[in-house]
Design a protein that fits this description.
This protein is 30% helix and 36% strand. By secondary structure, the chain is α+β, with helices and mostly antiparallel strands.
Length: 182
């Protein structure tokens, strides 16, 4: 005989309240401020290689967000930028200060890719991806961590499931693959 779970005996409120909330400054940077800024850029005028050289801009944005949170400000230590290219795709990977709580982003990727119609270049588009800290579960119990590949666009947040290992090149490759397939 197998053990069956009686849904009426599950305390959903206790489960939800046991999940820690992401830290505001961390969450606001990766999931609110940066995607709004990036998705508002004119894709034809964005130079990701130039942005990759400007660590100050990203660190200053991180620090400025501290004034909007109630908790102790988080250090920008660990915030790093890397630029990668593959074919006609290019990406700026922003490694964030250490993610500690599920749904905090480990890294974000700003991708610039050409938009073609009938092989004619019509311009470029920007896409914004996150590699988030997630949780593995065994039944209802947490059983370790994982990464989750997600994307922000004008329609909101999309979750693509398990992500790659948390490395710049692995994340860039996963984002390039996603861009080529959609």
């Amino acid at each position: 005989m197998t053990d069956e779970i009686d849904i009426d005996e599950i305390d959903i409120d206790a489960i939800v309240s046991s999940i820690p909330r992401p830290r505001d400054q961390h969450y606001m940077f990766a999931h609110v401020a940066l995607p709004q800024i990036v998705l508002g850029f004119d894709p034809g005028k964005v130079d990701l290689a130039e942005l990759a050289a400007d660590h100050h801009y990203f660190r200053q944005m991180w620090d400025d967000l501290a004034q909007f949170v109630e908790a102790e400000p988080l250090s920008n230590e660990g915030l790093e930028l890397a630029h990668r290219r593959a074919d006609e795709l290019e990406v700026l990977v922003v490694t964030l200060p250490r993610a500690e709580i599920p749904s905090e982003a480990i890294m974000v990727a700003i991708v610039r890719r050409p938009v073609r119609r009938w092989l004619v270049l019509r311009g470029h588009e920007l896409r914004y991806f996150t590699l988030e800290l997630g949780v593995k579960y065994a039944g209802l119990a947490p059983a370790g961590s994982r990464t989750v590949l997600c994307e922000w666009n004008e329609d909101g947040h999309s979750n693509y499931g398990d992500g790659p290992p948390a490395g710049v090149d692995e994340f860039a490759a996963a984002v390039f693959d996603k861009c080529r397939s959609s």
